[in-house]
Design a protein that fits this description.
Length: about 325
């Protein structure tokens, strides 16, 4: 993937080329990246990009189904074991392509709001300090205005209500965890908002059928949908168990994408998760000196990333069945 110069990003310019933390690795991802950049450059209709993704998803589905059937037919002889290995590699290639497609769908949603994803953190440092262009206004409008106060409370909680002025010294590890927390909360808000709209439509449908009452909020088991706003509906999830359930990712591919994207953003190369960084890092490299506005910028981005991730899952799963996470 081609990358902008650092000045292109820090000046707040719109996408010229893809300048995102995670590198696309699959042939399908690189092809679709070209289609997406053509649409961006020519300001073409977005349907062109979505049509291309739909066609590729159908091909990937056929490829994955064929690989799975091949594995089911295989015996234990050496030749069959070789064929099984080929089938496993095909399935792995499909999974890699799906992660790339999910990422591109998210990037394209950001583009629609004229917002660039923050590239690798190291590319944004100036004299060792993180100072990001202010995108809060644009990022805020990705979320429902009814939830702005609720989101502000959550961001204060995630940032420990840090001082709004000056620079803050923060470890990469903590910064990464704060970023992931904002992604999960954005995912939660999109999930709850979609459920609210669904139950609202169901309520209106009930009245159209002259049932005389609105439908109950089946998830919360108590709140009437008739007079409540989206903000009231979200507040009904304040019980920790409900919030945790709402933040749970539905599919394994989404979990892998969050981890891969966050590792690339903070340049953490281990596959073991987000809780530790390389032991041979210099001590100074474990810390980032960031302005409070830059921290908020990344967290607002995380909220949008989570919302778009939920939408990308829905789009892909309608064509290519994603792998559900086991309930815990």
């Amino acid at each position: 993937m081609k990358v902008n110069s650092d000045s292109d990003y820090n000046s707040g310019n719109k996408f010229r080329r893809l300048n995102v933390p995670l590198t696309l690795k699959s042939r399908v991802g690189k092809f679709l990246s070209g289609v997406m950049q053509d649409v961006m450059r020519e300001q073409d209709k977005p349907q062109k990009f979505y049509r291309a993704i739909t066609e590729e998803l159908k091909l990937l589905k056929d490829c994955r189904d064929s690989a799975l059937k091949q594995m089911l037919k295989i015996d234990s002889c050496l030749e069959d074991m070789f064929q099984r290995r080929i089938a496993e590699l095909e399935e792995k290639k499909c999974k890699l392509a799906i992660q790339d497609i999910m990422y591109l769908l998210i990037i394209f949603k950001f583009y629609a709001f004229d917002v660039s994803l923050v590239p690798k953190i190291s590319k944004c440092l100036r004299n060792g300090k993180l100072e990001l262009p202010d995108m809060e206004r644009k990022l805020k409008y990705i979320q429902s205005w009814e939830l702005w106060d609720t989101i502000r409370e959550i961001l204060n909680l995630i940032t420990f209500a840090a001082d709004s002025f000056g620079m803050k010294l923060i470890t990469k590890d903590l910064f990464a965890k704060m970023y992931v927390a904002s992604i999960l909360y954005g995912y939660f808000l999109k999930s709850v908002s979609s459920r609210y709209e669904l139950e609202k439509r169901q309520f209106l449908s009930d009245h159209d059928l002259n049932t005389g009452h609105g439908s109950k909020n089946v998830f919360l088991g108590k709140q009437e949908i008739e007079n409540g706003t989206l903000k009231d509906y979200v507040k009904g999830f304040k019980r920790p168990r409900l919030v945790l359930d709402g933040c749970k990712l539905r599919y394994k591919e989404a979990l892998q994408l969050i981890e891969s994207h966050t590792q690339a953003l903070f340049e953490h190369n281990k596959e073991c998760g987000l809780n530790e960084f390389d032991d041979d890092d210099e001590e100074d490299d474990r810390f980032i000196e960031a302005s409070f506005s830059s921290i908020k910028r990344l967290l607002w981005e995380g909220l949008a990333f989570g919302s778009f991730l939920w939408m990308a899952e829905d789009f892909i799963d309608g064509i290519y069945k994603l792998e559900e996470r086991e309930a815990k």
